[in-house]
């Protein structure tokens, strides 16, 4: 039963990541963006200074934000 729940949760989270309007960005310990969803790609480009940007974003939202904050 637990394996089926884990697979369903993984599917739900991946589906949310791929379809939400909320910007989701994964950052490593060095401040480098390692993954972002399509919504985040709408506001971030290849030319952006990700290291400076992620430090500013992460210190502002303290690890959490949503489209209403």
Please sum up the structure shown.
This protein is mainly α. It has one domain.
Strand order across the largest sheet: 1-2
Distance between the termini: 37 Å
Q: Give the CA-based shape.
A: flat
Order of SSEs, N→C?
HEEHH
Number of strands: 2
Mean pLDDT: 74
Strand-pairing-aware structural class: mainly alpha
The total tally of domains equals 1
Question: What count of helical segments does DSSP give?
Answer: 3
Q: Report strand %.
A: 5-15%
- Given as residue ranges, the uncertain stretches (5+ residues, pLDDT < 50) are none
Keywords: Kinase, Transferase
Protein name: Two-component sensor histidine kinase
GO molecular function, one term: kinase activity
Please render the helix and strand layout as text.
Elements: H1 2-19, E1 25-27, E2 33-36, H2 38-41, H3 50-61
């Amino acid at each position: 039963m637990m394996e089926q729940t884990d697979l369903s949760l993984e599917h739900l989270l991946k589906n949310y990541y791929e379809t939400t309007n909320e910007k989701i960005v994964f950052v490593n310990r060095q401040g480098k963006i390692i993954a972002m969803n399509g919504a985040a790609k709408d506001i971030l480009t290849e030319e952006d200074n990700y290291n400076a940007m992620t430090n500013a974003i992460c210190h502002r939202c303290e690890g959490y934000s949503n489209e209403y904050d």
